[in-house]
Design brief:
Shape: globular
Distance between the termini: 51 Å
Strand content: 15-25%
Number of helices: 20
Strand order of the largest sheet: 2-1-3-4-6-5
Structural class: alpha/beta
Radius of gyration: 24 Å
Number of strands: 17
Largest sheet: 6 strands, parallel
Helix content: 25-40%
Protein backbone atom coordinates (compact mmCIF):
# COMPACT_ATOMS: atom_id res chain seq x y z
CA UNK A 1 0.00 0.00 0.00
CA UNK A 2 1.19 3.51 -0.91
CA UNK A 3 -0.31 6.94 -0.41
CA UNK A 4 -1.58 6.98 -3.99
CA UNK A 5 -3.11 3.53 -3.76
CA UNK A 6 -4.75 4.44 -0.47
CA UNK A 7 -6.35 7.46 -2.16
CA UNK A 8 -7.76 5.13 -4.85
CA UNK A 9 -9.07 2.75 -2.21
CA UNK A 10 -10.79 5.56 -0.27
CA UNK A 11 -12.38 6.95 -3.44
CA UNK A 12 -13.84 3.51 -4.07
CA UNK A 13 -15.11 3.20 -0.50
CA UNK A 14 -16.81 6.58 -0.87
CA UNK A 15 -18.72 5.36 -3.91
CA UNK A 16 -16.78 7.30 -6.54
CA UNK A 17 -17.14 5.50 -9.88
CA UNK A 18 -14.83 7.58 -12.06
CA UNK A 19 -11.63 9.56 -11.64
CA UNK A 20 -11.42 12.28 -14.32
CA UNK A 21 -7.86 13.14 -15.20
CA UNK A 22 -5.04 14.01 -17.57
CA UNK A 23 -1.94 11.99 -16.82
CA UNK A 24 1.15 13.32 -15.05
CA UNK A 25 4.09 11.84 -13.21
CA UNK A 26 3.11 13.41 -9.90
CA UNK A 27 -0.19 11.51 -9.67
CA UNK A 28 0.17 8.24 -11.58
CA UNK A 29 0.36 6.14 -8.40
CA UNK A 30 -3.25 7.19 -7.70
CA UNK A 31 -4.26 5.45 -10.93
CA UNK A 32 -2.86 2.20 -9.57
CA UNK A 33 -5.07 2.48 -6.52
CA UNK A 34 -8.10 3.28 -8.65
CA UNK A 35 -7.43 0.30 -10.92
CA UNK A 36 -6.96 -2.02 -7.92
CA UNK A 37 -10.22 -0.93 -6.24
CA UNK A 38 -12.57 -0.54 -9.22
CA UNK A 39 -12.59 3.21 -9.90
CA UNK A 40 -12.48 3.82 -13.65
CA UNK A 41 -9.77 6.28 -14.71
CA UNK A 42 -11.12 8.49 -17.51
CA UNK A 43 -8.49 10.58 -19.30
CA UNK A 44 -8.97 13.78 -21.28
CA UNK A 45 -6.93 16.00 -23.57
CA UNK A 46 -7.01 19.05 -21.28
CA UNK A 47 -7.17 19.34 -17.48
CA UNK A 48 -9.95 21.89 -17.74
CA UNK A 49 -12.09 19.26 -19.47
CA UNK A 50 -11.35 16.70 -16.76
CA UNK A 51 -12.65 19.07 -14.10
CA UNK A 52 -15.70 20.02 -16.16
CA UNK A 53 -16.53 16.32 -16.52
CA UNK A 54 -16.16 15.76 -12.77
CA UNK A 55 -18.43 18.76 -12.16
CA UNK A 56 -21.09 17.24 -14.42
CA UNK A 57 -20.72 13.86 -12.71
CA UNK A 58 -21.52 15.45 -9.36
CA UNK A 59 -24.52 17.36 -10.69
CA UNK A 60 -26.02 14.36 -12.48
CA UNK A 61 -25.40 11.83 -9.71
CA UNK A 62 -26.49 14.16 -6.91
CA UNK A 63 -23.32 13.18 -5.05
CA UNK A 64 -19.80 14.34 -5.96
CA UNK A 65 -17.32 14.35 -8.83
CA UNK A 66 -13.56 13.81 -8.52
CA UNK A 67 -10.69 14.90 -10.77
CA UNK A 68 -6.94 14.51 -10.40
CA UNK A 69 -4.29 16.55 -12.23
CA UNK A 70 -0.55 16.88 -12.13
CA UNK A 71 1.38 19.79 -10.64
CA UNK A 72 2.09 23.20 -12.16
CA UNK A 73 0.37 23.59 -15.53
CA UNK A 74 -1.90 20.66 -14.66
CA UNK A 75 -3.42 22.44 -11.68
CA UNK A 76 -3.39 25.81 -13.44
CA UNK A 77 -5.26 24.40 -16.44
CA UNK A 78 -7.84 23.04 -13.99
CA UNK A 79 -8.47 26.40 -12.32
CA UNK A 80 -11.23 27.51 -14.71
CA UNK A 81 -13.14 24.28 -14.08
CA UNK A 82 -12.86 24.77 -10.32
CA UNK A 83 -13.95 28.40 -10.58
CA UNK A 84 -16.98 27.35 -12.62
CA UNK A 85 -17.93 24.73 -10.01
CA UNK A 86 -17.48 27.32 -7.27
CA UNK A 87 -19.93 29.77 -8.84
CA UNK A 88 -22.34 26.94 -9.70
CA UNK A 89 -22.12 25.43 -6.18
CA UNK A 90 -21.14 22.00 -7.51
CA UNK A 91 -19.63 19.45 -5.12
CA UNK A 92 -16.23 18.62 -6.54
CA UNK A 93 -12.89 17.26 -5.32
CA UNK A 94 -9.78 18.24 -7.23
CA UNK A 95 -6.69 16.26 -6.26
CA UNK A 96 -3.55 18.07 -7.34
CA UNK A 97 0.01 16.84 -7.57
CA UNK A 98 2.95 18.75 -6.11
CA UNK A 99 6.74 18.49 -6.08
CA UNK A 100 8.21 16.23 -3.39
CA UNK A 101 8.32 17.94 -0.01
CA UNK A 102 12.10 17.51 0.23
CA UNK A 103 12.52 19.53 -3.01
CA UNK A 104 9.83 22.10 -2.31
CA UNK A 105 11.18 25.63 -2.54
CA UNK A 106 14.25 24.54 -4.49
CA UNK A 107 12.80 24.97 -7.97
CA UNK A 108 11.51 21.45 -8.63
CA UNK A 109 9.81 20.57 -11.90
CA UNK A 110 6.30 22.09 -12.09
CA UNK A 111 6.58 23.36 -8.51
CA UNK A 112 4.11 26.13 -7.71
CA UNK A 113 2.06 27.52 -4.84
CA UNK A 114 -1.26 26.14 -6.06
CA UNK A 115 -3.07 26.58 -2.77
CA UNK A 116 -2.83 30.38 -2.87
CA UNK A 117 -4.48 30.27 -6.30
CA UNK A 118 -7.22 27.80 -5.33
CA UNK A 119 -8.16 29.13 -1.89
CA UNK A 120 -10.45 31.96 -3.10
CA UNK A 121 -12.46 29.61 -5.35
CA UNK A 122 -12.86 26.56 -3.09
CA UNK A 123 -14.54 25.75 0.19
CA UNK A 124 -11.27 24.26 1.44
CA UNK A 125 -7.78 24.08 -0.08
CA UNK A 126 -5.09 22.15 1.77
CA UNK A 127 -1.94 20.10 1.34
CA UNK A 128 -1.78 16.60 2.79
CA UNK A 129 1.17 16.49 5.17
CA UNK A 130 1.94 12.73 5.39
CA UNK A 131 0.48 9.35 4.46
CA UNK A 132 -1.09 8.85 7.91
CA UNK A 133 -3.21 11.99 7.31
CA UNK A 134 -4.69 10.79 4.01
CA UNK A 135 -7.87 9.19 5.45
CA UNK A 136 -8.62 12.22 7.63
CA UNK A 137 -8.00 14.73 4.86
CA UNK A 138 -10.08 12.74 2.38
CA UNK A 139 -13.01 12.53 4.81
CA UNK A 140 -12.80 16.24 5.56
CA UNK A 141 -12.59 17.07 1.86
CA UNK A 142 -15.71 15.07 0.97
CA UNK A 143 -17.56 16.47 3.98
CA UNK A 144 -16.64 20.05 3.11
CA UNK A 145 -17.67 19.67 -0.53
CA UNK A 146 -21.11 18.38 0.46
CA UNK A 147 -21.82 20.32 3.66
CA UNK A 148 -24.34 23.17 3.54
CA UNK A 149 -24.04 24.90 0.19
CA UNK A 150 -22.02 22.45 -1.96
CA UNK A 151 -18.81 23.47 -3.69
CA UNK A 152 -15.32 22.44 -4.78
CA UNK A 153 -12.42 21.38 -2.56
CA UNK A 154 -8.74 21.28 -3.52
CA UNK A 155 -6.65 18.51 -1.98
CA UNK A 156 -2.95 18.68 -2.78
CA UNK A 157 -0.77 15.61 -2.31
CA UNK A 158 3.02 15.99 -2.81
CA UNK A 159 4.73 13.36 -4.92
CA UNK A 160 6.66 11.72 -2.10
CA UNK A 161 3.46 11.25 -0.07
CA UNK A 162 1.74 9.67 -3.06
CA UNK A 163 4.60 7.18 -3.59
CA UNK A 164 5.56 6.56 0.06
CA UNK A 165 4.43 3.37 1.85
CA UNK A 166 1.17 3.80 3.76
CA UNK A 167 -0.84 1.83 6.29
CA UNK A 168 -3.68 -0.11 4.70
CA UNK A 169 -6.53 1.50 6.63
CA UNK A 170 -10.25 1.95 6.01
CA UNK A 171 -11.93 5.17 4.96
CA UNK A 172 -13.37 7.42 7.66
CA UNK A 173 -17.03 8.43 7.64
CA UNK A 174 -18.23 11.55 5.85
CA UNK A 175 -20.40 13.99 7.80
CA UNK A 176 -22.44 16.80 6.28
CA UNK A 177 -25.78 18.47 6.85
CA UNK A 178 -28.10 21.12 5.47
CA UNK A 179 -30.34 23.09 7.82
CA UNK A 180 -34.09 22.51 7.75
CA UNK A 181 -36.45 25.44 7.60
CA UNK A 182 -38.14 26.42 10.84
CA UNK A 183 -41.83 25.99 11.52
CA UNK A 184 -41.98 29.76 12.13
CA UNK A 185 -40.74 30.58 8.62
CA UNK A 186 -43.08 28.07 7.01
CA UNK A 187 -46.03 29.55 8.90
CA UNK A 188 -45.11 33.11 7.90
CA UNK A 189 -44.88 32.13 4.23
CA UNK A 190 -48.19 30.30 4.47
CA UNK A 191 -49.89 33.38 5.94
CA UNK A 192 -48.51 35.62 3.17
CA UNK A 193 -49.72 33.12 0.55
CA UNK A 194 -53.22 33.29 2.03
CA UNK A 195 -53.19 37.07 1.51
CA UNK A 196 -51.57 36.98 -1.92
CA UNK A 197 -53.37 37.38 -5.24
CA UNK A 198 -50.33 37.12 -7.56
CA UNK A 199 -47.64 34.87 -6.04
CA UNK A 200 -44.66 33.44 -7.93
CA UNK A 201 -42.10 30.80 -6.94
CA UNK A 202 -38.64 30.62 -8.50
CA UNK A 203 -36.74 27.37 -8.04
CA UNK A 204 -32.94 27.39 -8.40
CA UNK A 205 -30.02 24.98 -8.43
CA UNK A 206 -29.92 24.47 -4.66
CA UNK A 207 -33.02 22.28 -4.79
CA UNK A 208 -30.94 19.63 -6.59
CA UNK A 209 -29.14 18.88 -3.31
CA UNK A 210 -32.25 18.80 -1.13
CA UNK A 211 -33.48 15.64 0.56
CA UNK A 212 -36.90 16.71 -0.79
CA UNK A 213 -35.63 16.77 -4.39
CA UNK A 214 -37.85 13.86 -5.43
CA UNK A 215 -40.97 15.57 -4.10
CA UNK A 216 -40.84 18.84 -6.05
CA UNK A 217 -43.93 18.10 -8.12
CA UNK A 218 -46.01 17.09 -5.14
CA UNK A 219 -44.97 20.22 -3.22
CA UNK A 220 -45.80 22.56 -6.11
CA UNK A 221 -49.06 20.76 -6.91
CA UNK A 222 -50.20 21.31 -3.33
CA UNK A 223 -49.20 24.98 -3.12
CA UNK A 224 -50.66 25.72 -6.57
CA UNK A 225 -48.46 28.72 -7.43
CA UNK A 226 -46.91 29.58 -10.84
CA UNK A 227 -43.28 28.47 -11.01
CA UNK A 228 -40.18 29.47 -12.96
CA UNK A 229 -36.96 27.48 -12.82
CA UNK A 230 -33.31 28.09 -13.58
CA UNK A 231 -30.00 26.24 -13.42
CA UNK A 232 -30.17 22.69 -12.15
CA UNK A 233 -33.83 23.13 -11.20
CA UNK A 234 -34.78 22.83 -14.86
CA UNK A 235 -36.58 19.55 -15.30
CA UNK A 236 -37.71 19.35 -11.68
CA UNK A 237 -41.37 19.65 -12.74
CA UNK A 238 -41.04 17.56 -15.87
CA UNK A 239 -41.76 18.76 -19.39
CA UNK A 240 -45.28 20.17 -19.34
CA UNK A 241 -46.42 20.82 -15.77
CA UNK A 242 -49.44 23.19 -15.78
CA UNK A 243 -47.77 25.49 -13.20
CA UNK A 244 -44.43 25.66 -15.04
CA UNK A 245 -43.85 28.81 -17.09
CA UNK A 246 -40.89 29.65 -19.33
CA UNK A 247 -41.75 32.67 -21.51
CA UNK A 248 -43.54 35.00 -19.06
CA UNK A 249 -41.03 35.50 -16.23
CA UNK A 250 -40.51 39.21 -16.85
CA UNK A 251 -44.24 39.93 -16.72
CA UNK A 252 -44.77 37.65 -13.72
CA UNK A 253 -42.08 39.28 -11.59
CA UNK A 254 -43.15 42.78 -12.56
CA UNK A 255 -46.76 42.15 -11.48
CA UNK A 256 -46.31 39.74 -8.57
CA UNK A 257 -47.29 40.73 -5.04
CA UNK A 258 -45.38 37.82 -3.47
CA UNK A 259 -42.13 36.34 -4.80
CA UNK A 260 -40.51 33.27 -3.24
CA UNK A 261 -36.91 32.64 -4.24
CA UNK A 262 -36.01 29.05 -3.38
CA UNK A 263 -32.28 28.63 -3.87
CA UNK A 264 -32.19 31.42 -6.46
CA UNK A 265 -29.54 34.18 -6.25
CA UNK A 266 -30.41 37.77 -7.09
CA UNK A 267 -27.65 38.04 -9.67
CA UNK A 268 -27.51 39.26 -13.29
CA UNK A 269 -30.12 36.70 -14.33
CA UNK A 270 -32.73 38.65 -12.36
CA UNK A 271 -31.09 42.02 -13.02
CA UNK A 272 -29.86 42.03 -9.41
CA UNK A 273 -33.42 42.03 -8.13
CA UNK A 274 -34.65 44.92 -10.25
CA UNK A 275 -36.93 42.71 -12.34
CA UNK A 276 -39.03 42.05 -9.22
CA UNK A 277 -41.89 44.42 -8.43
CA UNK A 278 -40.47 46.80 -5.81
CA UNK A 279 -43.71 46.52 -3.84
CA UNK A 280 -43.75 42.73 -3.85
CA UNK A 281 -43.28 40.84 -0.59
CA UNK A 282 -40.00 38.99 -1.07
CA UNK A 283 -39.12 35.63 0.51
CA UNK A 284 -35.51 34.45 0.19
CA UNK A 285 -34.64 30.86 1.07
CA UNK A 286 -31.18 29.40 0.53
CA UNK A 287 -28.06 27.83 1.93
CA UNK A 288 -25.75 30.84 1.50
CA UNK A 289 -26.19 33.48 4.22
CA UNK A 290 -24.19 36.05 2.25
CA UNK A 291 -26.38 35.64 -0.81
CA UNK A 292 -29.55 36.25 1.21
CA UNK A 293 -28.32 39.76 1.96
CA UNK A 294 -27.07 40.60 -1.52
CA UNK A 295 -28.73 43.28 -3.69
CA UNK A 296 -32.16 43.14 -2.03
CA UNK A 297 -33.00 41.67 1.34
CA UNK A 298 -36.10 39.59 1.74
CA UNK A 299 -39.04 40.47 3.94
CA UNK A 300 -38.55 36.89 5.08
CA UNK A 301 -35.11 35.31 4.78
CA UNK A 302 -33.82 32.02 6.14
CA UNK A 303 -30.65 30.02 5.73
CA UNK A 304 -32.06 26.57 5.04
CA UNK A 305 -32.66 23.85 2.52
CA UNK A 306 -35.14 25.89 0.45
CA UNK A 307 -37.30 22.91 -0.45
CA UNK A 308 -37.70 22.05 3.22
CA UNK A 309 -39.50 25.37 3.70
CA UNK A 310 -41.80 24.78 0.73
CA UNK A 311 -42.49 21.22 1.89
CA UNK A 312 -43.63 22.54 5.28
CA UNK A 313 -45.77 25.19 3.60
CA UNK A 314 -47.38 22.53 1.41
CA UNK A 315 -48.39 20.58 4.51
CA UNK A 316 -50.38 23.61 5.72
CA UNK A 317 -52.15 24.45 2.45
CA UNK A 318 -55.90 24.00 2.67
CA UNK A 319 -57.07 25.80 -0.48
CA UNK A 320 -58.25 24.28 -3.74
CA UNK A 321 -56.28 24.14 -6.98
CA UNK A 322 -58.33 27.05 -8.32
CA UNK A 323 -57.07 29.47 -5.63
CA UNK A 324 -54.81 31.35 -8.08
CA UNK A 325 -56.59 30.46 -11.33
CA UNK A 326 -57.11 34.07 -12.47
CA UNK A 327 -53.42 34.89 -11.99
CA UNK A 328 -52.36 31.65 -13.68
CA UNK A 329 -54.65 32.43 -16.61
CA UNK A 330 -53.17 35.91 -16.95
CA UNK A 331 -49.63 34.53 -17.07
CA UNK A 332 -50.69 31.81 -19.47
CA UNK A 333 -51.89 34.52 -21.86
CA UNK A 334 -48.45 36.19 -21.79
CA UNK A 335 -46.82 32.78 -22.11
CA UNK A 336 -48.89 31.76 -25.12
CA UNK A 337 -48.31 35.06 -26.93
CA UNK A 338 -44.52 34.87 -26.61
CA UNK A 339 -44.47 31.15 -27.23
CA UNK A 340 -46.58 31.41 -30.38
CA UNK A 341 -44.23 34.03 -31.84
CA UNK A 342 -41.18 31.89 -31.11
CA UNK A 343 -42.76 28.72 -32.45
CA UNK A 344 -44.03 30.49 -35.55
CA UNK A 345 -40.50 31.67 -36.34
CA UNK A 346 -39.38 28.13 -35.52
CA UNK A 347 -41.30 26.93 -38.60
CA UNK A 348 -39.19 29.08 -40.93
CA UNK A 349 -37.79 27.42 -44.07
CA UNK A 350 -35.24 30.16 -44.68
CA UNK A 351 -31.66 29.45 -45.74
CA UNK A 352 -29.32 29.97 -43.95
CA UNK A 353 -31.39 28.16 -41.35
CA UNK A 354 -33.22 30.33 -38.83
CA UNK A 355 -31.75 29.64 -35.35
CA UNK A 356 -35.23 29.15 -33.92
CA UNK A 357 -35.97 26.50 -36.56
CA UNK A 358 -32.88 24.65 -35.39
CA UNK A 359 -33.89 25.00 -31.74
CA UNK A 360 -37.44 23.81 -32.38
CA UNK A 361 -36.37 20.80 -34.46
CA UNK A 362 -33.74 19.76 -31.93
CA UNK A 363 -36.33 20.03 -29.15
CA UNK A 364 -38.89 18.05 -31.14
CA UNK A 365 -36.40 15.27 -31.82
CA UNK A 366 -35.30 15.05 -28.18
CA UNK A 367 -38.94 15.08 -27.01
CA UNK A 368 -39.61 12.00 -29.12
CA UNK A 369 -37.06 9.94 -27.17
CA UNK A 370 -38.83 9.85 -23.81
CA UNK A 371 -37.69 10.93 -20.36
CA UNK A 372 -34.20 9.40 -20.05
CA UNK A 373 -32.42 12.32 -21.65
CA UNK A 374 -29.76 14.75 -20.43
CA UNK A 375 -29.30 18.04 -22.30
CA UNK A 376 -26.16 20.16 -22.07
CA UNK A 377 -26.06 23.81 -23.10
CA UNK A 378 -22.67 25.15 -24.18
CA UNK A 379 -22.87 28.50 -25.89
CA UNK A 380 -24.21 32.02 -25.72
CA UNK A 381 -26.91 33.13 -28.10
CA UNK A 382 -27.94 29.73 -29.47
CA UNK A 383 -28.27 28.20 -25.99
CA UNK A 384 -30.24 31.22 -24.79
CA UNK A 385 -32.70 30.63 -27.62
CA UNK A 386 -32.77 26.85 -27.28
CA UNK A 387 -33.65 27.09 -23.59
CA UNK A 388 -37.12 28.33 -24.56
CA UNK A 389 -37.78 25.19 -26.62
CA UNK A 390 -35.93 22.38 -24.84
CA UNK A 391 -37.88 20.63 -22.10
CA UNK A 392 -35.74 18.76 -19.56
CA UNK A 393 -37.65 15.91 -17.96
CA UNK A 394 -35.99 15.50 -14.56
CA UNK A 395 -33.52 17.00 -12.08
CA UNK A 396 -30.07 16.56 -13.58
CA UNK A 397 -31.63 16.54 -17.04
CA UNK A 398 -30.28 20.00 -17.87
CA UNK A 399 -26.65 21.07 -17.50
CA UNK A 400 -25.18 24.46 -18.29
CA UNK A 401 -22.07 26.11 -16.87
CA UNK A 402 -23.94 28.26 -14.36
CA UNK A 403 -23.45 31.91 -13.41
CA UNK A 404 -19.76 32.06 -14.33
CA UNK A 405 -20.88 31.60 -17.94
CA UNK A 406 -17.89 29.45 -18.84
CA UNK A 407 -17.87 28.27 -22.44
CA UNK A 408 -16.34 24.93 -23.37
CA UNK A 409 -18.24 22.71 -20.94
CA UNK A 410 -20.19 20.88 -23.65
CA UNK A 411 -18.18 17.78 -24.56
CA UNK A 412 -16.72 17.28 -21.04
CA UNK A 413 -20.14 17.69 -19.42
CA UNK A 414 -21.58 15.19 -21.89
CA UNK A 415 -18.87 12.64 -21.09
CA UNK A 416 -19.23 13.08 -17.33
CA UNK A 417 -23.02 12.84 -17.52
CA UNK A 418 -23.07 9.78 -19.79
CA UNK A 419 -20.62 7.93 -17.52
CA UNK A 420 -22.87 8.52 -14.50
CA UNK A 421 -26.10 7.76 -16.36
CA UNK A 422 -25.23 5.23 -19.09
CA UNK A 423 -28.93 4.44 -19.65
CA UNK A 424 -29.65 8.08 -20.62
CA UNK A 425 -29.23 9.67 -24.04
CA UNK A 426 -27.05 12.79 -23.87
CA UNK A 427 -27.31 15.78 -26.20
CA UNK A 428 -25.24 18.96 -26.37
CA UNK A 429 -26.35 22.23 -27.94
CA UNK A 430 -23.13 24.02 -28.93
CA UNK A 431 -22.41 27.49 -30.15
CA UNK A 432 -19.67 27.39 -32.76
CA UNK A 433 -17.50 29.62 -30.59
CA UNK A 434 -18.02 27.44 -27.53
CA UNK A 435 -17.23 24.27 -29.49
CA UNK A 436 -13.71 25.53 -30.12
CA UNK A 437 -12.69 25.42 -26.47
CA UNK A 438 -12.94 21.69 -25.82
CA UNK A 439 -14.11 20.21 -29.11
CA UNK A 440 -11.00 18.04 -29.06
CA UNK A 441 -12.62 16.05 -26.27
CA UNK A 442 -14.56 14.33 -29.03
CA UNK A 443 -11.32 12.40 -29.46
CA UNK A 444 -11.52 11.32 -25.82
CA UNK A 445 -15.12 10.22 -26.24
CA UNK A 446 -14.33 8.28 -29.42
CA UNK A 447 -11.31 6.59 -27.85
CA UNK A 448 -13.18 5.70 -24.66
CA UNK A 449 -16.43 4.81 -26.48
CA UNK A 450 -18.67 7.32 -24.73
CA UNK A 451 -21.58 8.28 -27.02
CA UNK A 452 -23.45 11.58 -27.17
CA UNK A 453 -24.94 13.77 -29.90
CA UNK A 454 -23.69 17.33 -30.29
CA UNK A 455 -25.56 19.89 -32.39
CA UNK A 456 -23.66 23.04 -33.36
CA UNK A 457 -25.55 26.23 -34.19
CA UNK A 458 -22.90 27.55 -36.55
CA UNK A 459 -23.38 31.23 -37.42
CA UNK A 460 -19.66 31.96 -37.86
CA UNK A 461 -19.67 34.54 -35.06
CA UNK A 462 -19.59 35.19 -31.35
CA UNK A 463 -23.16 36.40 -31.76
CA UNK A 464 -24.00 37.24 -28.16
CA UNK A 465 -21.20 39.82 -28.18
CA UNK A 466 -21.51 40.87 -31.83
CA UNK A 467 -25.21 41.61 -31.36
CA UNK A 468 -24.33 44.36 -28.87
CA UNK A 469 -21.06 45.38 -30.52
CA UNK A 470 -22.34 46.39 -33.95
CA UNK A 471 -25.06 48.82 -32.75
CA UNK A 472 -22.62 50.35 -30.24
CA UNK A 473 -19.62 50.78 -32.53
CA UNK A 474 -20.91 50.32 -36.06
CA UNK A 475 -18.52 47.46 -36.77
CA UNK A 476 -17.51 44.00 -35.60
CA UNK A 477 -14.04 43.44 -34.16
CA UNK A 478 -12.83 40.03 -32.93
CA UNK A 479 -16.35 38.57 -33.14
CA UNK A 480 -16.35 37.05 -36.63
CA UNK A 481 -15.52 33.36 -37.22
CA UNK A 482 -15.78 31.08 -40.27
CA UNK A 483 -18.35 28.42 -41.13
CA UNK A 484 -15.81 25.82 -40.02
CA UNK A 485 -16.42 22.13 -40.76
CA UNK A 486 -16.20 20.89 -37.20
CA UNK A 487 -18.10 17.79 -38.33
CA UNK A 488 -15.12 16.71 -40.45
CA UNK A 489 -12.87 16.94 -37.39
CA UNK A 490 -15.23 14.68 -35.44
CA UNK A 491 -15.31 12.20 -38.32
CA UNK A 492 -11.50 12.16 -38.33
CA UNK A 493 -11.55 11.14 -34.67
CA UNK A 494 -13.78 8.18 -35.52
CA UNK A 495 -17.13 9.74 -34.63
CA UNK A 496 -20.04 10.71 -36.87
CA UNK A 497 -20.09 14.14 -38.49
CA UNK A 498 -22.64 15.77 -40.76
CA UNK A 499 -22.98 19.31 -42.12
CA UNK A 500 -26.53 20.62 -42.54
CA UNK A 501 -27.58 23.65 -44.62
CA UNK A 502 -31.21 22.79 -45.41
CA UNK A 503 -33.80 23.05 -42.60
CA UNK A 504 -35.58 19.93 -43.85
CA UNK A 505 -32.41 17.93 -43.09
CA UNK A 506 -32.07 18.84 -39.39
CA UNK A 507 -34.17 16.03 -37.93
CA UNK A 508 -33.01 13.35 -40.43
CA UNK A 509 -29.39 14.29 -39.65
CA UNK A 510 -30.06 14.05 -35.94
CA UNK A 511 -31.63 10.64 -36.45
CA UNK A 512 -28.55 9.44 -38.36
CA UNK A 513 -26.28 10.81 -35.63
CA UNK A 514 -28.37 9.22 -32.88
CA UNK A 515 -28.43 5.85 -34.66
CA UNK A 516 -24.65 5.98 -35.08
CA UNK A 517 -24.18 6.61 -31.35
CA UNK A 518 -26.39 3.69 -30.43
CA UNK A 519 -24.73 1.39 -32.94
CA UNK A 520 -21.05 2.34 -32.57
CA UNK A 521 -20.98 3.57 -28.96
CA UNK A 522 -19.19 6.73 -30.12
CA UNK A 523 -20.18 10.41 -30.26
CA UNK A 524 -21.69 12.33 -33.18
CA UNK A 525 -21.69 15.95 -34.34
CA UNK A 526 -24.38 17.64 -36.43
CA UNK A 527 -22.92 20.95 -37.62
CA UNK A 528 -25.77 23.26 -38.72
CA UNK A 529 -25.20 26.46 -40.69
CA UNK A 530 -27.56 29.07 -39.28
CA UNK A 531 -28.44 32.68 -40.03
CA UNK A 532 -29.77 35.41 -37.75
CA UNK A 533 -32.81 36.11 -35.60
CA UNK A 534 -33.99 39.11 -33.60
CA UNK A 535 -35.50 36.78 -30.96
CA UNK A 536 -32.96 37.70 -28.27
CA UNK A 537 -32.19 41.26 -29.37
CA UNK A 538 -30.81 43.29 -26.48
CA UNK A 539 -30.33 40.25 -24.25
CA UNK A 540 -26.62 40.58 -23.45
CA UNK A 541 -25.97 40.17 -19.71
CA UNK A 542 -23.35 42.00 -17.67
Amino acid sequence: MTGGKLIGKILSRYGVKHLHTLCGGHIMEIYEGCADYGVRVVDYRHEQAAVFAADAAGRVSGYIGVAAVTAGPGVMNAVTGVANAFRANSPLILIGGQAPTFFYGKGALQEMDHISVLKPITKWAVQVTDTKSIPEFMARAFSAALDGLPGPVYLEVPMDIIFNPADDVEALEIYYSRPESSAKTANEIYEKLKESKRPVILLGSEIAWSKYRNSVRQIIDKIGVPVFVNGLARGSLGKDHPLLFRFARKQALAQADLVILAGVPLDFRLDYGRTINENAFLVRLGLDPAELKRNREGNISEVCDPLSALAKVAEKVDWSNSRFSDWIGELKKHEDERKSKAYEEGKSNSVPINPLRLCKDVADFIDSLGDKVIIVGDGGDIVGSAAYFLKPTHLGGWLDPGPLGTLGVGAPFAIGAKLEKPDHDVFVVFGDGAFGFNGFEYESACRLKIPFVGVIGNDAAWTQIKRAQVPMYGRAIATDLEYTRYDIMVSAFGGYGEFVENPEEIIPAMQRAYDFCRRENKPACVNVKIGETEFRKGSISM
